[in-house]
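Homework help board

Subject: predicted structure for assignment chain

Our instructor gave us this sequence and asked us to write out the predicted structure in token form, then describe one feature. I got the tokens but I'm not sure how to describe them. Can anyone check?
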Amino acid sequence: MDKMRKAIFLNFPTHGCINSLLATVSELVDRGEKVIYYCTEEFRNKIEQTGAEFRPYNGLINKFKIENGDLSKALKLNVEMTVDKLDHNLKTIRKESPDYIVHDSLCTWGKHMAEILRIPAVNLMHSFPLTESSISFSKETALLLTKVGLYKIKNKFMKNSPKRFLKKKYNINLSLGDTLINKEGLNIVYTSKHMEPGIHKTEKDYCFVGPSLFFKKEQTDFPFDKLDGRKVIYISLGTLHNNNSSFYSTCIEAFTDSEFNVVISVGNQIHPNEFSDLPNNFIIRQSVPQQKLLEKVELFITHAGMNSVNEAICSGVPMLLLPHQYEQKMIAQRVRQMGIGNIMKIKKIVPTRLFENVENLISDPKYKKQAIKYQSIFRKEEKISHVKAADKVLHYINKQAQ
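My token output:
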């Protein structure tokens, strides 16, 4: 029988980075592993539902906010958070005497904390790996690399730059790969191999275990009875890109007096009361029970985050995809290739074009047919993805201990 060990989970503090990991945490706890999970207070309830022991991060930077989808600013913030989390949490975690660390793909301090403590680490990925072979040259990537290059040059000449500090205090040579993916000896990706782009088939370090959905407690006060009698469209831009009142206003204009009931989840930065004289066929809330709602909708308009896409496919729902970031564009392109949806550029959306695209996706049966085809595959994989992930984690950690 394998020896049970103590694991420290470290997470980048966003819902997208955390949600797909929770079922695996629960599985490891059920197998007798002692799991201590560090994150920010807003995720305490979710994490404690798994049976893990929650610990709040110490430090000064506990909020992550991406501005206008600017990945270069997100990478800069990641570097600053890495300094903050190492400085304020390393000593405490060292005292825990963990056997291994598990971190998500954006949690750079997790990778380097394991290196400093000289213990093995596993990378759990909520989205596609961003590797050299997966990044194609475009105006967007050229701009990103230019910004990253300028940031690196600035760091070189700044006396107290975060990167210089990490090298001096912790002997860490921080790379772009560390802030984008944090690759380890074992890297588990939470989606189906059917979602895997061909570019990753030659890279053997990534294990696609299937989608992972875990919510034991979802809100139950949603007025589902108000959706009866019409086809339902659900709109959500996730948790990082949802502060977009003008987009929601465009959606209201597009579907007012239409044949559809429309549900919009706007997040915590916008209050539904901002939208006055709301038509009767609209429900706008800050949050909704997404998995349960998706079982009742005809179309999902989404930012193309991996968790949302996995949930939609598991519910057999076609999608209109509005990607904001590079990996979301990869996901959206793959969904379109699978025949489950179409893509629009959110900055170019006007009410008439939005309505036309939605009507086409709902009226053309091929999209629903493809969604149902992949639904059976994804649901089957989702039932055991957390078991496969836990198997691989424990096998890898036991092997490293030999």
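Reply (TA_rk): Your tokens look well-formed. For the description, you could write something like this. The chain has a mean pLDDT of 86. That's the kind of observation they're looking for.
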